[in-house]
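Give me C-alpha cells for this 719-residue protein.
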Amino acid sequence: MVEALVQQLLDGLTVGMVYALLASGLSVIFGVMNVINFAHGELFGLGAYFALAVVSPLGGVGFYLALLVAPLIVGGIGVLIERFTVRPLYDRNPLYHILLTFGLVLIISDLVILVWGPEPTSLSRPEFITGTFDALGGSFSRYAVFMIVFGSIVTAGVWAVLNYTRYGLIVRAGAQDRRMVRNLGIDIDQYYSLVFGAGAALAAVAGIVIAGRGQVTPGLGSAFIIPAFVIVVLGGLGSFKGAVLGGIGVGVLQESVIKPDFPAIDGFTLVPALPQFDGMIIFILMIGVLVLRPRGLFGSEFNEESGQLLVGADRSLLTDRQRQFLGAGTVGLLALLPLTSGSLLEPSTVEFLMIRILIWGLFALSLDFIMGYAGLVSLGHVLFWGLGSYTAGTVLTNVTESVLVAAAVALAVGTAVAYVVGYLSIRVSGVYFAMITLGFAELYHNLVIDIDGWIQDGWLHTVLTAVPGVDSAMLVDFELTGGSEGLFGFSTFYGVGDIGVHLDEIAVYLGPVTLTDRLLLYYIILSVLVGSFFILRRILNAPFGAVLKGIRENETRVQFLGYDPTVYKRRAFVISGMFATLAGVLSALSNPFVSPGAAEWLKSGEVIIMVVLGGLGTLFGPLIGAFVFFGLEEIIQDGVVFDSLRGLLTLVGLSGVADTIPDFTRRWRLVLGTVFVLFVLFLPSGLVSVPAKLEPYLPDRFRPTRATPAEQPTARGDD
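Here you go.
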C-alpha cells in the first residue's frame, strides 16, 4: 500500500512540475504584458523538437546539451514573435492577442509537421537517468526523480531572479502596476521582449522534460496548453506563485487522486468514482474559480485595458439600397449554383464544399452576434455546435427518424444549456469570459467521450439499473454518443414522429434538374441560412440591438441610462447559442458521422478566424469569411496554384526550389494561419473594410456623395 501511494505521488509530482514550468511562463507573460498566448503550447512542442534535433546526432549524451540549447532557440523565437507580431497590438484590446496567437498556433503546428514529419519520435536519454532504483520496498523511475529535481531547480531559479534581481523587481512591479513603473521613469516596454522570450524558454524546458518521458508528437503542445490555462486561472492570472502551486496541485490531483485505482482496504476503496471523471474535474474547478473568485487563489485584481474591438467598416462605397441588391444577387447566385453542377463546377464541390461553407457561415454568424455586437469573445462557442450535432444525431439514432423532432429537441437542449452557461459566464467579462466559455466547451468535450462508459460500467450504470425493468445486460453494449468514435448510421429524414421519409426518396424538379439527396439538402441549408440572417438583422435593428451596440461601446454609460447590461448580454448569449446549435444540427444532417472532435477548442479558433477575416459586427462579414476560409483551404489542397508555381520555378531554372512546393499543398493551415495573422495586424476590421480603405485612391466619379456635417455655431466672446 505504501509503495502504491509513493508511486502515485511520484507520478503526480512529475506531471505537476511540467505543468508548473509551462504555466509559470504563461502566467509571467500575461502578468507583465496582458497577453493570453495560445501559441504557448506550440512553443512547448518546439522545445521538444529542437531537443530532438540536438539529441539525434549525439545520442543520449546530447540530452543535457539540449536542455541548454533548445530553450535558447525557442526563447529567441519568442523574442521575434513579440517584436514583430505582439508589439503592434499593445494599443488595442488585449483580446486581439488571443486572435493573433490562434493564427500562430496554425502556423507553428504546420511548420513542425513540415520540418519533422507527422510520425511520433522518441527522445533518447542518458543512461544515468534511465531505468529504476529500489526504495521503500518498490522500484521507482530514475527519470521521474530527475524531472522533479530538475523542475524544482529551474522553478527556484526563476523565483530567485524575479525576487532578488533588478530585472525581476521591475518585471514584478510592472505586473502589479505598469503605470506606476512608467511614472518612475522606467520604460517597462523594453522588457517585454525579454519577458516573452523567457516565458517561451520555460515552455521549451517543460516540453523537453516531458518528451523524455514519452514520445515527441506534433500534437504535444495542444495536449498540454488547455490544462496550463486551467492552472493559470486557478492560481491567478499573472501570479508566478499561483502558477507553480497550481501546476503541482493539478498534477498531483490528476495522477495521484483521479486516475489511480487504489487497492481496497477491508473492502473499502479509497477513491471509487473519481477515475471516471478524469479530464473533467479540473475544468469544473476552473469554472468554479472564475465564477466565485475570478482573480484566482493568488492573483490580484485585473483591470482590462481600454480599447474596443474594431468592428466592420466606418464607411462603405455602396448605399444601403445597393448593398441590398448585392445581397439579393449573391443569394440568387447561390441558388443557381447547383444547376451548374457537372458543367462549371464539379458535383462534389457543390454537394460537399458549398454545404460545408453554408453551415459554417451560420456558425460564424451566430458568433458574430455576441462577439461583434456585444463585445463578448467566446472561446467555447463550439460547445453549442457540438451539442446541436450530438443531440440531433442521438435522437435520430435512438429515438425517431424525424428531423423536425430531432431539430426541436436539439434547439431546446441548446437553449437551456446556453441560458445556464450564459448565466454563469456573464458574471465575468473580457479575458475571464473568454476563459470560462473555453472551460465549459472542454467540459462538454470530455463528457461526450466518457458518458457511454458511465452508462456501461460506472455510476450511471448503478443509477439506471436501480430503475425497475432496466437490466444490467441491457446497458453493457449501449452507446448513447458513440464515445470517442462518434455516432454512425443515420441520414437525413423528413417527417414527424415515427413517419420518416429519406431525402433520397423525394424528387424535386427545378427546370431540367432533378434535386435529390444532397442537392435538396443544399437548398434547405441555404434557406435556413438566409432566414437566420434576416432574423438576426431584425433583432439588431430593434431597440434590443441598439442596447447591445451601446454595451459594446461603453457598458457603464448604458447602465447609467437605466439598462441592465448583464440581462441584455445574457439574452444575446442565449440567442447566439440557439443559432450555433442550429448550425450543429445542420452539420449532423449533412454528415452521418458526428465526432467528439467537433467540440474541440481549435474549432472555436477556426470560426473566430472566419469572423475576423470577413469583419466583426457586420453579419455579412462572417459569411464572407467562411467563403474565404474554405475557399483558400480548397485551393491550397487542390494544388493547382502550387503546380503552376512549380512549373514557373522549373522554367527559370529553380527546379530544386520547385521540388519543395508540393509539400505545401498539405499545409493549408500554415497558409491560412499566415493570412489570419496578417489580417489581425494590418486589416483588423476584415475584408468588409477594404472598400473604405481604397476610397481615397479612387477617381472622384467612383466616390459616393456624402452629406457634409452642418456648420457648428461659432461661440461669442462673452460665452
